[in-house]
Specification:
With 284 residues, the chain is α/β, with parallel strands linked by helices. The protein contains 9 helices and 11 strands. The protein has one domain: Spore Coat Polysaccharide Biosynthesis Protein SpsA, Chain A.
Length: 284
């Protein structure tokens, strides 16, 4: 199987062409701070019949990403996994297809259908690595379906053990045995849910999950021990209530509003790639 050598780490993203710049930024940060060989996977699909903007990540973009991450470690690879047929089988026409979240968020629930890996660190496109991603392997998940950190707001408003599904260390071998994703997909198809795939992972994964410290999915300011910074939606209460959602490519607000300069070296690297390959520029 691809990428299952003992010394490799599997990292998976799901998304379309629109979020490729975010995926590239995230992968560059992983490559910068993780010295061991990493097998990067992007699960994508063509869903333009639902929305003309839903174009798949292309082979050319995969090649750009692989070239970029290999500049850090020669053994790094990048692979596209097409989920068109699987999506058609399990999600097409389901109750959540028209939700506020794109259908690409459902693709993480198809990972058990690929035989490329038995374990993988899943990362949302809006994440950045702050230190060696191998830290996930400090935790033995052989008897768990997945490991994840608590959701910053959900642990107060929904349930104390409510996890955020943007950063998940998946044990796909175990998930194939328990049928976790099968139950999750069936529920998403027939029942409308607000947080869709995150909700079903919390519902069906309560007994099979291992809780990780917040450093593995930091949803606020970067700390000294942060492994992954997640640029997800947040709330500021003072001096007035405000919901914000600045992604890592929005450099102007990452610097000015979030006061984060940790990724400036990655931004400089992206700028060079953008000029060479004609990628969308960062927002500055």
């Amino acid at each position: 199987m691809i990428g299952t050598e003992e010394n490799r780490l599997n990292v998976v993203y799901c998304g379309n062409e629109k979020v490729f710049p975010l995926i590239l930024l995230s992968a560059l940060s992983v490559a910068r701070y993780t010295p061991r060989p990493v097998s990067f996977y992007i699960v994508t699909m063509d869903l333009t019949e639902v929305d003309p903007r839903y174009l798949p990540v292309t082979e050319e973009e995969r090649s750009v990403l692989e070239t970029a991450v290999r500049a850090h470690t020669a053994g790094n690879t990048a692979t596209l996994l097409r989920a068109d047929g699987l999506y058609e089988t399990y999600f097409r026409g389901g109750k959540n297809e028209g939700s506020s979240y794109t259908p690409y968020t459902f693709l993480r629930l198809l990972l058990s259908e690929f035989d490329a890996f038995d374990r993988a660190v899943y990362l949302d496109a809006d994440t950045m690595c702050c230190s060696d991603l191998s830290a996930f392997e400090e935790y033995d998940i052989s008897s768990y379906e997945f490991a994840a950190a608590l959701d910053h707001m959900g642990k107060f408003w929904i349930r104390r053990d409510y996890i955020n599904a943007g950063v998940v260390y998946f044990n796909l071998k175990k998930i194939r045995e328990t049928g976790l994703f099968v139950r999750a997909r069936e529920t998403l198809f027939r029942k409308k849910m607000y947080f869709s795939d995150q909700t079903v992972l919390n519902r069906y994964g309560r007994k099979g999950k291992l809780l990780l410290p917040r450093r593995f999915n930091e949803q606020r300011g970067i700390r000294e021990d942060t492994v992954v910074k997640h640029f997800c939606r947040g709330i500021r209460w003072l001096p007035f209530f405000k919901v914000y959602n600045y992604k890592q490519n929005d450099v102007k607000n990452v610097h000015g509003k979030l006061h984060i300069t940790y990724f400036d070296d990655v931004y400089a690297e992206y700028d060079r790639l953008a000029e060479e390959y004609g990628l969308p520029p960062l927002k500055k």
